[in-house]
Amino acid sequence: MARIRIESGNGLQSAESIKSLRGTRESLALTDEGNSFGSDSELNGYTSERQTDKYGFIGGAQQYSEQSAEDIPPEVLRQREAKWLDMLNNWDKWMAKRHKKMKLRCQKGIPPSLRGRAWLYLSGGKVKREQHKGKFEELDRQAGDPKWVDVIEKDLHRQFPFHEMFVARGGHGQQDLYRVLKAYTLHRPEEGYCQAQAPIAAVLLMHMPAEDAFWGLVQICEKYLPGYYSVGLEAIQLDGEILFALLKRVSPLAHRHLKKHKLDPILYMTEWFMCAFSRTLPWASVLRVWDMFLCEGVKIIFRVGLVLLKCMLGSQDKLKTCQGQYETMELLKTIDTRYMLEGFLVREVIELPLSERDIEKEHLAQLRRWKETRGELHCKSPPRMHGAKAIMAAEPPNRQDLRQNPTIIVESSLATNKNGEGQEEDKARKKTKEQKNGKKNGTPVAANPEPSDTSTKPSPPLKDTPLQGSNQSLISTEHDTYL
Questions:
Q1: Percentages (nearest 5) of helix, strand, coil residues in the chain
Q2: Are residues 239 and 344 in the same domain?
Q3: Which residues constitute the domain of residue 31?
Q4: What is the dihedral of CA 210, 119, 464, 461, to 10 degrees?
Q5: Are residues 249 and 330 both part of a single domain?
Q6: DSSP string spanning 315-352?
Q7: Which of 483, 339, 296 is nearest to 408 (CA)?
Q8: Entry pTM
Q9: What is the maximum span of the chain, computed from C-alpha positions, in angstroms?
Q10: Does residue 92 belong to any structural domain of this protein?
């Protein structure tokens, strides 16, 4: 039986035009049914080979995933898991007072075992789910608009067809994907369904149950990327102009080249932005980008796009190979692997100086230009929220509290030592108060009480501390992540 190889990274082929991205057309990808990734003829090749890589892709089909993923020592991973559990169990406090530290931890990468839960909290999906209990079940029971149901059903087998969740037609992964997408069309009937939403929902489903994935999708569509999936796709076109204007600052050479050959941004950035790079990058890089994106907002998507454009078109040597419009488009369709690898890409994205203020300033400039040349926008999108902190700040004061009992109890030497120090500080404060009260009341107080014998010996480092009676990490595979 012949093996099947994927030669195009993680993605499917780009849309030929922006119009094809709307749900009324066959989109983002698959030029014809017989040759699309995920057709029965191709998937039948896997009937006897079911080994998956650590991300759940059958036969390691996700190109470059093994080479790009940076292995983290188990003891370091356990330390990160303990820190993230503390953050998740004290979420409001961390968001309000220690957001910068949380951002740094998202940049380092969320532990695989907690990624689904962290994404739900970062996006505000957890709050939405608690505020609208039973909403997803209610939508799930409804039949759905036949116009959208038909298009959704045609798209199911096209979403990551070599991932174990979606490999089987009619399998549990495709069923959950259908439920999530159908529920969204009922939740936002004025928007309906856009085919670029399917990979977003599929990525979420790899890390969380269907109800959580639904609320995660709602938050991404309404808070992170508002207007991207609406009729006319004006928001994505506007962001394309913003990206092009920002490129002039980041790489003037690349900007001049694209302008010279009249390459409209919508031709190369539509799939990048609408799918949040889930069809473009190696999987290890996708996960790291999403960790930062859900924490910091759309500026991460802009940064990734700018880094790729700068790397591919930012030097004279590279431009020698693409001296025309066609050659340039082909180059941007086949991005050099080394620029997409996890370590390099994340480092470049973090170091690129682009803030929310820069994006909003350019957004206002491009919006004025749009009105001057094209008139008013037909679809008025809600304001964009730049990351988890902005989303939380926009919630009403009586928002559902995120605090909950910890799912996993971790006893670490760091926590034990911290608790011990806290108890000693409480005792010292209490004694000081008693001494002051004693002086006021004329009661004799011992000047130098005998030292207590409750001092503790130094605790061993966290790496030697067993986690739930095991030396293993909380997770054995990347994709098994519900908690």
A1: 55, 0, 40
A2: yes
A3: 18-66+133-224
A4: -160
A5: yes
A6: SHHHHTT--SHHHHHHHHHS--GGGTSHHHHHHHHHHS
A7: 483
A8: 0.75
A9: 95
A10: no
